[in-house]
Amino acid sequence: MEILLKEDIPNLGLKGDLVTVKNGYATNFLIPKGRAVMATPSIKKMHAEDVRQKAHKEAKIREDAQLLADKLEGLSVVIATKVSSTGKIFGSVNTIQVAESLLQKGIEVDRRRIEFVSKEAIKEVGIYEAQVNCHREIKATIQVEVVAEEE
Q: Which one, 3, 20, 65, 113, has the greatest CB density within 10 A?
């Protein structure tokens, strides 16, 4: 029997998949529990339309992410912070400060999408690289320059 899954089921499929299972499994377990529906011709037609629309939305999201990555690639931001006489920063530079610097340049990026290439905290003056995750497969690298704050 062919069914359309309403939720992810381990070892069977993901939500929205059309799968073939034994009649008893479908009629006695999946359908009564609300985890699947029988794949009638009208359900299959609706599923095909949903798949087409999701593909269109995904293409639009990827296109927007690629445009953002093109803007960001090779970009450099400067972050001024308080520094001791030895060049050590009081505290550390974090992704919030990088996101604010990008916003000042007119590019809005969620701070959770930014991560530093060196996984360690930035605690010294210098030039570092950060990676912005625009999409699952699309990433852009920016330069973060940490300088001493003018007093």
A: 3
